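User: structure tokens for Dehydrogenase, please.
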Amino acid sequence: MKAVVANGQREIEFVTNAEKPVPNKGQILGHVLQVGLNPIDWKIAYNVPIPKGTIGGTDFVAIVEEVGEGVDASKYIGARVSGWVPGFLSISGSAWAEYVCTDARLVFFVPDSIVSSKACAVPVALTTASQGIHQRIGLPMPNPDGSVNPIRRKWFLVWGGASSVGQYAIQFAKLGGCNVVATCSPNNFEQIKKLGASFVFDYHDSHVVEKIKQATNDSVFFGYDAISLPHTITKSIMAFSSEAKAAKLVTVLGPPENPRAEAVDTITVFSFTAFNEEFEFFGEKMVGNDEDYEHTAKLFELVSTLLEKGIIVPNATREFHGGLEVIPDALREFASGNHSAVKFVINV
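Assistant: Done. Predicted tokens:
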């Protein structure tokens, strides 16, 4: 089958002779319609020595064609589903191919009202946001009817609010009963306010920390840094309340030295732990666990309803045509950073 694989030299290439996967027990096999690009894709592809021929890719939308043992064929066969796989690192399979296998519980059924490109913008980013906000911080999961949980009188900071993860973090924090303040580029202010942020500030502003403190009356007690560079983590921490004790900041990369460790607990999430496998990521071993797996499975049971009712709004997308062949060029453009507030989606 056609696929995009590692070439053994920290680059990727399009091939036509990849082996078609076979669904194992508890898995589905999908004919891929769309795949999405994520920062994790290029960070692994260009920086990690991946064996030649390993298929990459995480987000996908597919039509289910086969199921493995223990999966209800009447429920899945012919269904349009969206999900994700630990691209490049997984023994289970990856998304940049004509066919993909994954755990049947780690996909969601795409509502008829949602186009495939929008659905493809959901899986990894939504999982990463939820893992941090619902599991690590402890805010409640969204209500299926869209009602907001009781207001907590505390502010939630999302640094990098226009990123894919940041957009879902804003929505989850708002639904969880928090007031939200976010940072992003000025051209995305209005979009981020529509997602639920009460205040939005330019992260390039040298006075951004002071402005966040002033706008929130020095009441930030929760946060999610969706960028997680050393300087953004430090600024996020400094924007927390002066009275913070046991406050929580989620990061997607390991934090630098914490200047307020006694007041703000930094928690790093690695969404691949939703798969019960062992991974090596930049030399560090990561092990999946039942808790993260069960949380993600329950989240995906809820996602279809949240999308259908408009409770959660997917990322804006930029679509690429031309099939899997265009992924190498699209990934290079994505890695360049010359884009904002959009998810790259490839029509297979």
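User: Anything notable?

Assistant: The mean pLDDT is 93.
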